[in-house]
Amino acid sequence: MTLQALQELGALLVEIHGQHAHLSLLQASEQRRLLDESGSEPGLVKDTQELFNRWKSLSRELTARRQEAADRAAREELLRYQLEEMARLEISNLDYQGLLIQHTRLANVGRIGALSREQLDLLYDNEQLSVTKLLVQARHAAKELEQLAPELNGLNGMLQEAEIQVKEAVATLRHAIDDLECDPKQLEALDERLADLHHLARKHHTHPQELPRSVRNSRMKSTVLPAERNGSVSSKWPSWTPRRLIRRQRNACRNSGRRRRNG
């Protein structure tokens, strides 16, 4: 129990009499009690207390509603900022995996070129020992084997198919090498975009590939919050009660004054 609560309880249990009794008049509660007792209409005191309690209840409700409105406005502002940020980064059309593939390719152009040339040399360009030359030699030997051993018929055909596959692989490698191009500016732009996406994903506590879903969720929330604001119940302030109370108080004061003068 707090010290203030003990003081209030003690004031109810003990009333001081003596030369310092007037000190109790400094308390607002005592002043209000004496004023109420001096009035001639107990019903007015009761009505006033009920209206005051009602006002306190409505005041608390109004404060709560204002806080809810402020919180809702803050959420709406945050959603607007998030949607603008996502629109600026074009999250709705995001192909994160495609960006990663493109970035990996540009960041490893040198390694891709070196490996491709090594494979091309092994498959075709090596004049002394390449897969293509070995397959040609193997096909000549397979033709002779098919003549000597009929059960090996078809061996030359399989080697021929392998030679075709190797030639296609060689063409693919040459095409890839021709298309290799180091573009530092494009690589820098991809670095910045991926960094922005990772930063945005951390802010939304999600993975970069899930950002389009975050956009959809934010759009849904942005439509729900205004509906909540428009559908909220307005505070029920009984505008008639203060006016009625003031009239009754004035009438009571007039009647009390007349009675004192007549008495």
Please characterize this protein's 3D structure.
The protein is mostly helical and 263 residues long. The chain has a domain of 118 residues. It is built from ten helices and no strands. α3 runs antiparallel to α10. It starts with a helix and ends with a helix. About 3% of the residues have low confidence.
Short overview:
The protein is mainly α and 263 residues long. It contains ten helices and no strands.
Category by helix and strand content: mainly alpha
Order of H and E elements: HHHHHHHHHH
- SS strand fraction: under 5%
Average pLDDT over all residues: 81
Q: How many runs of DSSP E, i.e. beta strands?
A: 0
Helix content: over 70%
The largest β sheet comes out as: none
Low-pLDDT windows of residues: 233-241
N/C terminus separation: 49 Å
The helix tally amounts to 10
How many whole angstroms does the radius of gyration measure? Answer: 45 Å
Shape: rod-shaped
What is the topological layout?
Elements: H1 3-13, H2 28-38, H3 42-88, H4 96-107, H5 109-125, H6 131-148, H7 155-179, H8 184-203, H9 211-231, H10 240-262
Helix pairs in contact: 3-9, 3-10, 4-8, 5-7, 6-7
Keywords, separated by commas or semicolons:
263 residues, mainly alpha, 10 helices, rod-shaped
